[in-house]
Amino acid sequence: MTRLSAAQQQVRSDFLQQVGDGRLDKPAAEGSALPNLSYTCDDFFRLEQQTVFRDNWVFAGFAHRLERSGDMQPVEIAGQPVVLVRTADDSIRAFHNVCRHRGARLVTECRNSSKFVCPNHAWSYSLEGKLIARPHFHGGERHDVNSSECHRADLVEIRSATWHDWVFVNIGGEAEAFESCIAPISAKLEGYDLTALRFADALEFELAANWKLAIENFIEPYHVFSCHPWLNGFVGMDERVAPTFERRVLSCGYEFKATDPARGGELPWFPGLPPEKQNRGDWFVLFPNFAFEIFPDQVDVFVAWPQAADSCRETIALYFVGDGASAEKYSDARAHVIQNWNDLNHEDIGVVERMQSGRNSEGFDGGVLSPYWDPVLQQFARLLVESVGEEPVGGT
User: Fold this and answer.
1) Which of 110, 191, 221, 376 could form a disulfide with 274 if both were Cys (CB 3.0 to 4.6 A apart)?
2) Considering Cα of 355, then 358, then 360, then 364, what sign does the dihedral take?
3) Which pLDDT does position 243 carry in this prediction?
4) Helix, strand or coil, per DSSP, at residue 352
């Protein structure tokens, strides 16, 4: 774990004291979830960056945006500059996005190049992060090209994994193997040929709310009947089941009686889809902030990017099967699905921002929970406590 500031140590102590009241160990009907300070405090937000987003596998970018060897994309994860790059062997790797000389950012915008070149002193590195040359390093016209003698000047690589079109990084380097982390989701995707997916479009939203509220709202279906008229008509509350969880994965799903243009209606389906998957929708959260839904004709990725204690940015990336992603004959069908997601998320934004406002009230601090719908919120809270605290707290 990285060194924390005095303010971060104090807010962690305050937070652990508040969740140490048993709220997460009691059954949902008797307990509650996260305290207000975890949604409103700037020092807690910075603490999360140093713990939650440093020590877990965190979504960093889309592989389709790194199509060719030399494609580079700068991102920020856990408050740190990171660069993703596709190398000559067609793999995607991640590096700390700083020159080893004076710490200048190497890449400031998406681009393609055969190597990394620092804009300050033109130090150059291979796509694999190895130092190539340092101009005038030993004096005027005395260049250093014997990089084999100075391995400590190579770029610092970050542990990364690519799963389908999604790139994840673990800056701390000590999280469990990504394959183990994602296993509870992978096990539920049998029968879906994800290689048939093609990226179609992405929606971006700015929210005046903490990132955790966006993720909690995504996995909690209790609000559907009062906030989403179309969605409630598609699958009513009596047809919905409670979310479940396994380790760092939260999940939920339903069966629908009839298809709809927005959910498995007019677009191509996954090839060879088993009968039991032809009327299902399932959605998942990989802690902390990556989520996606899968239907017979689409996958919709949802990412909540932390911006500040009281703001986040959401990305919804939409994938369709084969020609469904780009063929002209499906343009109206795609537009229908995309508009539906846009409308649903705008309905959610109002919900989430009202909850953020409520986190400033002394009349709320963790909630009175539903024993049916809300145990998943306690699990999310336990995962956060485990990441922030020195020792795991409650749950499995």
Assistant:
1) 191
2) negative
3) 97
4) helix
Query: Quick one: DSSP state of residue 260?
Result: B
Residue 218 and residue 314 in contact, taking contact as beta carbons nearer than 8 Å:
no
What are the structure tokens assigned to 145, written together? 């090209």
Enumerate domains of the chain plus CATH numbers.
Answer: 61-162 (2.102.10.10), 175-388 (3.90.380.10)
Strands 92-96 vs 124-125: parallel, antiparallel or unpaired: unpaired
Q: Which residues of the chain have pLDDT under 50?
A: 1, 391-396
Query: Which residue has 């970050």 as its token pair?
Result: 158
Distance CA 392, CA 388 (A): 9
**Which amino acid is it at 204?**
E
The pLDDT, as a whole number, for residue 144 is 78
- E strand or H helix at 193, and its extent? none
User: Mind listing the pLDDT tens digit for each residue in 300-332?
Assistant: 999 999 999 999 999 999 999 999 999 999 999
CA distance 152 to 380: 39
